[in-house]
């Protein structure tokens, strides 16, 4: 026996045409379908409230190009993440294969040299941009109450960016990166108290060995990028919550004047 079909819920039925209404063109139909899909997701997740909170904020007067340095640093990080994924498709972190796989990326993979160059120069750009962004927040007094925690998160982001540079430098596994990393690990090991332990941790033992490269690779492509992404999230949450600092040359409006202006 055939079971009767359950009726479609009214929300899924096309809206009946009003008298005299022209036929919808495909572009309008597509637009409406897009809006309907977003509505569908929003009804179930209520994400639009969070999105609105994040995007539509009051910004003080007089903000300028210096305020774009944080976003520029973020885009440099995104560039590293995207190009890094493509490099990881061909790179082999074993001591016998690493150099050859890096050479293969540069010479044989389609656009390999370009992507490797973007990753290499992108890392330099990220370090320059993070310093400029830090200088902006310092000189504009953005580290003061109530943004101290965001400054502290920024300092951790700066250290993690340096860890990315250090661990990435070994990966081409040529003479320069090999000896530079030995020097860096020895300098770290000569530090007081935690120095020798940190040195051993970096090398994966007392000597630079076969595990050092895979350890650097894991730190470079899994541990630190994950931490940076999470901390950027916390950093941006605080920027959205606390708002942006006004430029220091902007005089605050006196409360009496504000009331007069409103009248
Ligand atoms: C991966 C590194 C970083 C990213 C992606 C990043 C991103 C951002 C973005 C997008 C903003 C808002 C726009 C702006 O003011 O430029 C911001 C604000 C801020 N950042 Fe960073 N940042 C990073 C590192 C740092 C560092 C190293 C410091 C300081 C040590 C820092 C301290 C701050 C402070 C205090 C603010 C608030 C600025 C204000 O309220 O005017 N950030 N950051």
Shape: extended
Report the structural category.
mainly alpha
Q: Based on the structure given, which CATH architecture of the domain at 66-242 is correct?
A: Up-down Bundle
Please outline the major beta sheet: none
Say how many strands there are: 0
What portion of residues belong to β-strands? under 5%
CATH superfamily of the domain at 66-242: Cytochrome Bc1 Complex, Chain C
Helix content: 55-70%
Low-confidence stretches: none
CATH topology of the domain at 66-242: Cytochrome Bc1 Complex, Chain C
Q: Give the end-to-end Cα distance, rounded to a whole number of Å.
A: 76 Å
By CATH reckoning, the class of the domain at 66-242 would read Mainly Alpha
- Overall mean pLDDT: 92
Order of helices and strands: HHHHHHHHHH
Number of helices: 10
Distinct small-molecule ligands in the complex: protoporphyrin IX containing FE
Can you characterise this structure?
This protein is mainly alpha-helical and 263 residues long. The chain has a domain at 66-242: Cytochrome Bc1 Complex, Chain C. Helix content is 67%, strand content 0%. Helix 5 (112-139) packs antiparallel against helix 6 and helix 6 (148-170) runs antiparallel to helix 9 (210-242). It is extended. The N and C termini lie far apart (76 Å). The mean pLDDT is 92. It binds protoporphyrin IX containing FE (HEM).
């Amino acid at each position: 026996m055939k079971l009767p079909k359950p009726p479609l819920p009214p929300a899924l039925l096309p809206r009946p045409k009003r008298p005299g209404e022209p036929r919808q063109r495909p572009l309008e139909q597509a637009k409406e379908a897009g809006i309907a899909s977003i509505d569908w997701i929003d009804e179930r997740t209520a994400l639009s409230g969070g999105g609105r909170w994040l995007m539509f904020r009051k910004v003080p007067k007089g903000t300028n190009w210096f305020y774009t340095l944080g976003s520029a640093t973020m885009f440099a990080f995104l560039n590293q993440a995207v190009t890094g994924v493509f490099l990881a498709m061909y790179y082999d972190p074993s001591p016998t294969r690493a150099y050859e796989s890096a050479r293969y990326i540069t010479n044989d993979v389609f656009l390999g040299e370009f992507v490797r160059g973007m990753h290499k120069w992108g890392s330099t750009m990220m370090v320059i941009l993070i310093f400029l962004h830090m200088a902006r927040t310092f000189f504009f007094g953005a580290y003061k109450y109530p943004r101290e925690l965001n400054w502290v998160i920024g300092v951790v982001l700066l250290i993690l960016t340096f860890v990315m540079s250090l661990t990435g430098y070994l990966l081409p596994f040529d003479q320069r990166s090999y000896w530079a990393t030995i020097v860096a690990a020895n300098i770290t090991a000569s530090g007081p108290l935690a120095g020798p332990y940190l040195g051993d941790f970096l090398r994966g033992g007392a000597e630079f060995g076969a595990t050092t490269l895979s350890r650097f690779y894991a730190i470079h492509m899994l541990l630190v990028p994950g931490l940076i992404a999470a901390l950027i999230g916390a950093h941006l949450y605080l920027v959205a919550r606390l708002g942006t600092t006004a430029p220091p040359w902007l005089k605050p409006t006196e409360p009496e004047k504000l009331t007069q202006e409103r009248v």
